[in-house]
Amino acid sequence: MDTTDHIATRPVAPAEADPAAASPAVPYADRRPEARSVLKWAILTVPLVVVLGLASGWASGSGANSPWFDALVKPDIYPPSFLFGIVWTILYVLIGFSLAFVLATPPHPLKRFALTVFAAQLFVNVLWSPLFFGAQLIAFAFFWIVLMIALVIATMAYFAKISRMAALLLVPYLAWISFAAVLNLQFWQLN
């Protein structure tokens, strides 16, 4: 009599059959969203961020076409005016991709808060040009850009917990607004 005929067998999960096939526990920040998903989000986020940012500067009369700004004493470290449009366009594209990386990640307990902090820093960014160029509040704009720096650092910290790439994409932005804060302070001191 064969005893194996009477033993109930249960299906074996692939991970039990081959322990090497089981995926190890990966920290959340190491999980990468699919490139296709990031690109789908980027189609929306990149143009949105670029348009918001550039429209803010254009609507406030920023740059070399402003008689008020032309009359200001410029700091020695002030770069050629044409660079600002180029640099900001590149930065807004990076910011849009950073947002796309976070939106493309799986659910995370900090995701909603991280997106709220991101929205706050973008709001502060969009209002800086109207404060500096439109309202001509150089001193207030300096404190506003310091607030922006703090919010970008907070955004990077929360984004890093969700997607390291999202946080890394904001590094050039942080560097540029830190430089812009120094420029803003020098404009305040010279004018």
Brief synopsis:
With about 190 residues, the protein is mainly alpha-helical. The termini are far apart.
Question: What features would you describe in this structure?
Answer:
The structure is a single chain. The chain is mostly helical and 191 residues long. The chain is 69% helix and 0% strand. The protein contains 8 helices and no strands.
List the helices and strands and how they pair.
Layout: H1 14-17, H2 35-59, H3 67-71, H4 82-104, H5 111-134, H6 138-162, H7 164-168, H8 171-190
Helix pairs in contact: 2-4, 2-5, 5-6, 6-8
Number of strands: 0
Radius of gyration: 24 Å
As residue ranges, the low-confidence spans are 1-26
Helix percentage: 55-70%
The helix-strand sequence is HHHHHHHH
Strand percent estimate = under 5%
Mean pLDDT across the residues is 87
Separation, N- and C-terminal Cα atoms: 102 Å
Please state the overall shape, judged from the principal axes of the Cα atoms. elongated
Feature tags:
69% helix; 191 residues; mainly alpha; 0% strand; disordered N terminus
